[in-house]
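pasting for the record
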Amino acid sequence: QEAWIYNHGRHLKVGVLLAIGAAIEFEAGTLKRAPKFMRKIGLEWLYRAWTEPRRLGKRYLKNLKFLKYLI
């Protein structure tokens, strides 16, 4: 979503664009959040990848490749 905003935002003629991810779904109760301990240690992304692998797997695998490179 950040890439889309970067590439298209200037053509929309609006003052502010927000990339809020799944925040609305969490608030609406239509998407379950990770257990509190996972959120507390920054692993909500892992929980989401586990529960929605088809939708999020490829995106998060790219991040893991970056982490491997970084290490």
